[in-house]
Write a structure and sequence with these properties.
By secondary structure, the protein is of the alpha/beta class. Helix content is 41%, strand content 11%. Helix 8 packs across helix 12.
Length: 419
């Protein structure tokens, strides 16, 4: 690579900036043009010296690029690819460092085809960075001693493969060829499962009234755990998990089996116990829900619906009858979702609360006949959520009704469908 090579680096986060710094370390004649949807991330890369110049619109620099390094999350990179696809030089190769390269990348590959091969070249951390770099800072030696996973399907031009091999040399990494499905599986195991569990652990602390003070005392293990979320927006993480759902579900099933726990898919996000609706804002949109319900792989993960739903005169659900939830602070709730406690174990015994609470007694009197304007009792109706979101335990649960409609539409071709 003696002649000057112009690289358009789409995405200058930790991975992109580290590659840029490694290119500078190599001492070759590289012209590095940087772009990132986040202006702050782009400026930081420029300050580090990871890029030679920055652009706010990648389309304007596309015609200069001899090589494109796509360092944006695979499922979310399509708008950027759309902006550059028609402006690239003929046969310009696009290397994607995203951890997903199976079906999630099909729209990207289709947009670049047939003139611009899109090859996965995914760098994996070297041993030192993997063990000691909890902060995830960009550095030229971040991938030293690591691996460069290369997915080059049949028909990939030889020149594109040679570029991947050159990149491995620049990163001081060992090239390793694998199939797209293998790469997606590795990503599910090494990236997504840890991020998902870390996000769940951090989120669980939000209901702890003492966490505001306790978080000042956390040690390095918790800092490492929290860093796995990496400041990634919830919607972005959710999008990646959905796109790689096949391998991810397989790993979750194995994890549940190891823990001796059941594992099922629930598309219904719920508010926090203080009625904060923030988690609900991360819910899938209508198109995403339709895709989930029409996917046979995911359909198998849903809880099996009851063969016989509650009839007139019968109880609405198990709330306050066969279920309850006890918080870490002794509050006894009628169910996992119901926002109002029936009593506290620091003040009364469980027996006293379970048999004597006016709230629990009242809930036990409610039957299907008492529902007000609700469409019925199905897999997606929850009285507690109706109370939180629509103000009436016995009234309609609009979000559940909408979800039931989408599920019915999507599952008509999958057999019995969902109620």
């Amino acid at each position: 690579m003696a002649q000057t090579l112009t690289l358009l680096m789409l995405g200058t986060g930790t991975t992109g900036a580290s590659i840029g710094l490694a290119l500078r370390r190599a001492g070759e004649n590289f012209q590095r043009i940087g772009y990132d949807p986040d202006p702050q991330t782009l400026r930081k890369a420029q300050q580090l010296g990871a890029v030679d110049r920055i652009v706010n619109n990648p389309a304007g620099a596309a015609s200069e690029a001899d090589l494109v390094l796509l360092n944006l999350p695979g499922p979310n990179s399509l708008p950027t690819v759309e902006a550059i696809a028609g402006r690239l030089k003929a046969d310009t190769v696009v290397l994607s460092t995203a951890g997903l390269h199976g079906p999630a990348m099909d729209p990207v590959r289709e947009r670049l085809a047939p003139n611009h091969p899109c090859v996965a070249a995914v760098p994996f951390l070297g041993p030192l960075a993997a063990l000691f770099d909890a902060e995830g800072e960009a550095s030229a030696d971040r991938f030293d001693g690591g691996m460069l996973g290369i997915v080059a399907p049949q028909g990939t031009p030889e020149g594109a493969v040679e570029i991947c091999m050159d990149l491995a040399m620049v990163l001081h990494a060992t090239p390793f060829f694998l199939e797209a499905a293998e790469l997606d599986s590795v990503t599910a195991t090494s990236e997504e499962i840890p991020s998902l569990l870390a996000a769940a652990a951090v989120e669980s602390l939000q209901v702890n009234p003492g966490w505001r003070d306790q978080r000042r005392l956390v040690g390095r293990p918790f800092a490492r755990l929290a860093s796995l979320v990496g400041g990634k927006a919830g919607s972005e993480l959710a999008s990646e998990l959905i796109f790689n759902r096949g391998p991810l579900i397989s790993r979750l099933d194995a994890l549940a089996e190891e823990l001796g726990a059941g594992c099922m898919l629930d598309t219904q996000l719920i508010p926090r116990k203080d009625r904060d609706p923030t988690p609900v804002k991360l819910s899938l949109n209508r198109d995403q829900l339709r895709a989930v319900f029409s996917d046979p792989l995911l359909a198998a993960q849903f809880a099996q619906p009851a063969k016989c739903l509650p009839q007139p005169g019968e109880e609405i659900c198990a709330t306050a009858r066969r279920t309850c939830m006890i918080s870490p602070y002794g509050d006894v709730f009628p169910c996992l979702v119901f926002p109002v406690p029936a009593g506290n174990l620091r003040e009364k015994s469980f027996r006293e609360i379970w048999t004597g609470s006016p709230l629990l007694r009242d809930l036990r009197t409610k039957t299907v006949d008492d529902l007000r304007g609700a469409r019925g009792v199905g897999a997606f109706r929850c009285g507690a959520l109706a109370l939180i979101e629509d103000g009436d335990f016995l009234g309609p649960f609009r979000r559940g009704d909408e979800m039931a409609e989408i599920a019915a539409e999507a599952t008509r071709g999958l057999g019995d469908g969902l109620p």
